[in-house]
Every structure is written in C-alpha cells, then in structure tokens.
Amino acid sequence: MDWDKLRVFHAVASAGSFTHAGEALNLSQSAVSRQISALEESLDVPLFHRHARGLILTEQGDLLYNTARDVFSKLAITEAQLTESRERPQGPLSVTTTVSFGTLWLTPALHEFIDLYPEIQISVILDDGELDLAMREADVAIRLSPPRQPDLVQRHLLDLQFNIYASADYLTRHGTPQTPEELDHHRIIIYGDTPRPPVGSVNWLMHAGAKPDHPRRPVLRVNNLYGMFLAAQSGVGIAALPNYFAGQEGGLVQILPEIKGPTIETFFVYPEELRHSMRIAVFRDFLLKKIADQNHK
C-alpha cells in the first residue's frame, strides 16, 4: 500500500472533503482526488461515498481509516520520543483541561514552567469536554474526574472543594443568607443543561436546605463554571464554585461557610505510550510542587 496515498486518504477521511484535505496537505483538490482514486483502484474497493454535501466513508473505508488513524497516532508518539533530548526536555507539549480551571489556575502558573523549561513549546487547550488522549488530541490532561478511557496513566493532583459565593454588591442589595433555608429567597446561578457536567453533583446548591416540596428556581443557567463565576461576580446571584475561584481580583465573598459541597478529585492523565516522556515528567513534577507550595501558604 503506497504510503503517500495512505497519508492523503487519512487527511481526506479526517477532514471529510477533498478541499479541506488539500488545504491541510498543501495540495490541489484535483491532486487529492487523483490520489484517492488511485488508492481505490489499487485496492479494488470504494473507500468513499461521494455526495454533493461531502464524503462518507464506506464500510471498507471505515476499516482502513481506523487502522490508518492508529498508525499515524503511534508514529506521532514515536516521533516525539525520538526528537526529545535525553539531557534536556524539549519539543511540543499540549495540555488540555476545563475552561475555568485552565483560565484561573493553570495558565497563571505557566510563566514559572516556561522560565524553567524554555525549550518546551507548551500549548493549552481549554475544553469542558474530554479530548481523546489515545488519539493524540492532546498529550496530557488535567481532569476533574477519574479518566474513563483505558490505557491512560493517572496521578492524583489535588482535591477541590465547592463553596458558596456571591459578590459584595449582591449581598448589599439582597442581604446575606444566614441559613441554608434562606437560599429559597435568593437568586441562584446553576450549571446549565449538558449531558456531561464537570462533576455529577455540580448543582448541589439547588437542594442545600431546600424543602422537597418547594424546589428552587434558578435565576440563570450557564454551562461553564467560569461563566457562572463572572455572573456571580457581576452581582447576578449566588453560585456554588470550586475554591480556586476564591481570591480572584474583584472577587467573591464566601457565604454559609459551614456548608460544604462535593469534593472534586483532580487527576493528571496521559497515555501509557508517553510514560517515559521527559516533557510530561517535568510538567507533572512542576504541577505537584506548585500545589504543595500553595498548600503550605
């Protein structure tokens, strides 16, 4: 099987069109189409159903794509391992985590890591969904729950505690609740409807001190913790947020401190194939030291 044609096929199957694949490969649409036709002719099977709205993999094409995707993923890992210096870690490192944790906790800490390891080109991908590490959508992840994928190495980083917050302006205008029951008379901000919230019990504030026959109605739903933080900060209402939101500039006031929400276990996760990567090792150790330093303050 011709390697160049397989590379073009992988790009077309990933992009879903000859045009987008050509842009990624710096080839014309006609050149891409010729390569695919030649590959189909050499294999004597159709790989795509061609429609006006795009390309759809045939059953045979889907089989080849799954194999090609595995091959290219393993090659990317091997390339990273071959180019990494034995004396000094260097090269690209992509890290994914949630929007709020990445914005408020991770990215402000990275200047120290970059000073320590300037040869590592770090990229941060903020996404409340879980990127596929096995398919190299990112090298490592900081997850707010144990990984569900098999063949991933995990290391516990820290525990995050949910607390209740509001802005000083909101409390001046609406008063400070002294008991959980008084939350019935306040404006509550909750995590919006989504099939995969960051933690299963993210909206526990709706039930804290509430009577079963008098459910609370939220004033606002936002499907992002950082968005909830900004809404609470602007005085919209009261929100339950992880404790890394505390101490932000123009920050929030913790209320009802005796009420503790769920604890979130946070994990450092990466594929088994990258277990011996020096870049990942130094980044993991940097995070653990950063957390230890913060805990001792």
Tags for this model:
two-stranded antiparallel ribbon; Arc Repressor Mutant, subunit A; 297 residues; D-Maltodextrin-Binding Protein, domain 2; alpha/beta; single chain; 9-stranded mixed sheet; elongated; 3 domains
Fourth CATH level, the homologous superfamily of the largest domain: Periplasmic binding protein-like II
**CATH level 3 topology of the largest domain:** D-Maltodextrin-Binding Protein, domain 2
Distance between the termini: 60 Å
Which architecture of the largest domain does the CATH hierarchy give at level 2? 3-Layer(aba) Sandwich
The counted number of beta strands is 11
Structure notes:
The chain is of the alpha/beta class and 297 residues long. The protein has 3 domains: 3-83, Arc Repressor Mutant, subunit A, CATH 1.10.10; 91-157 and 266-295, Periplasmic binding protein-like II (D-Maltodextrin-Binding Protein, domain 2, 3-Layer(aba) Sandwich), CATH 3.40.190.10; 160-264, D-Maltodextrin-Binding Protein, domain 2 (3-Layer(aba) Sandwich), CATH 3.40.190. It contains 8 helices and 11 strands. The protein has helices spanning 3-15, 18-25, 29-43, 59-83, 99-116, 168-174, 225-233, 278-295; strands at residues 48-51, 54-57, 91-97, 120-126, 140-143, 152-166, 188-191, 220-222, 238-242, 253-255, 263-271. Strands 3, 4, 5, 6, 7, 8, 9, 10 and 11 form a 9-stranded mixed β-sheet that branches. Strands 1-2 form a two-stranded antiparallel ribbon. β3, α5 (99-116) and β4 (120-126) form a beta-alpha-beta unit.
